[in-house]
């Protein structure tokens, strides 16, 4: 449930859903993040989606 995500992850999820074809660099720019931070958040979302713990 997206409502239970920390705000930073929820924002990244919304960015990805709104920009499905955006590159990592583009998502980072849209979110005002470094590519490293954007990558970390996306990887965390994937982990959670696969049943990882929050």
Automatic annotation (TrEMBL):
Domain of life: Bacteria
One Pfam family of this chain: HTH_WhiA
Domain Sporulation regulator WhiA C-terminal: 4-48
InterPro entries cross-referenced by the UniProt entry: Sporulation_regulator_WhiA_C, WH-like_DNA-bd_sf, WH_DNA-bd_sf
Record-given protein name: Transcription_WhiA
